[in-house]
Amino acid sequence: MKAPKIYIIGIGPGHEKYLTTEALAALNHCEVIIGYKRYLQLINQTIEGKTLISSGMMQERERAESAFERAESGLATAVVSSGDAGVYGMAPLLLEMKKERRSVVELEIIPGISSLFAAAALFGAPLGHDFCVLSLSDLLTPWTTIENRIEAAAKGDFVTAVYNPASKERYWQLLRLKEVFLKCRKAETPVGIARQVGRSDQELRIVQLKDLKAEDADMLSILIIGNSQTESIDKQLLTPRGYATKYNNMPKKKGKVGRRIMKESFSLIRKQLQGADHMDAETLWASLYAIHTTADFSLAPLIEVQANSIRQLHAWLTQNASTHIVCDSEMAAAGIRKGVLAPHNIHLHCYISHPEVIEKAENKNITRAQAALHKAAEIHPDALYVFGNAPTGLRELIKLSRKGLMKPSGIIAAPVGFVNVLESKLELKHGLPATNKIIIKGNRGGSNLAATLVNAILSWDQAEAFNPGEGM
Length: 472
What we know:
By secondary structure, the protein is α/β, with parallel strands linked by helices.
């Protein structure tokens, strides 16, 4: 013997044309149809000849109990809801009662076209992006909970559908929603008001949020409040999904994918970087590169760019016949973009593993960084020097420069650690005040930061166009 069953059927917003094929089949199968009397009237031709059990508002539990009693007696039973039975409808209540009663009755939920989707179609395409649905009825939900949800919807820039917006006794709730939304949305935000959707006396209006009134809506209305992108065009609402800007305007298809991603990353960093509007252009450009490399916004206050250093070093590297960059570690050298070096005849060097350097460090009892600096100073006294490892090489450069034995065109000072790191950076700042330089203040630094600051210099001509990644 088959288990008894209740069909929980969404009949759509009103007209019988909104009934799905599955809903029609279930209604035809059932002997008993239970529902709110207005809903049964909407489908009276479809259910002619059936046993009908109807009741009024706020008698949902009685209807559910009747359904279980009829089904348990062996009758094929349907409970109908307008729209979709799972959206503010009878499906949740019947599932709860099945649990309460420990009933063996099987529940089958037949989906229906909700009033929201029917209204959205009538208005055009207001739900083209993320949306949420709220009910302003506080019969079953405390107002404090509803208001929290209103605030979340407004702040989240969701297109927001509103069921049960107002009644004769409830008017201030809609006005409170308006107040909350106006804190986050433009006053001109379009609002679609649909009343009696799918029925003979259907009404559609579009107003601006600032003009929304409590008397504009009732319990037979549904509102659709646009998000920050929603437009009212020719009596229709459009919330763009983003296809046009993402695929049709195609600026991002130009150039390599890595560079496009980097540009998008820089844009996101720029929006989140506190104090960005007050930074000079060179410090901002260096900060964007540093944060992109490390995902660490706390680096920005530590980046000290001597005035015009990036501009002058870019010109020196790209406008001279041949220039040199010397790194204190192979890791720093590896991070510098080679694609921009060759076209400008820029030569990259790291002497840390040179046999003469290793021998000199052992014989003189000095660090390899110091020995490498001596080797580089003999060959390239005017190079751009890049430090991202220990501070001993940087201190040696300062000493030789102050003695007049070398004159670097610029210095990237990002040694990292605890012993003599802070001191080396202060020695550079005050010991070679006229030299172009970028310093990562404090104990922070590293080869990756040193390399990315060189890349910032190499791409300086792209800063105004906000197009990072030169040489990728």
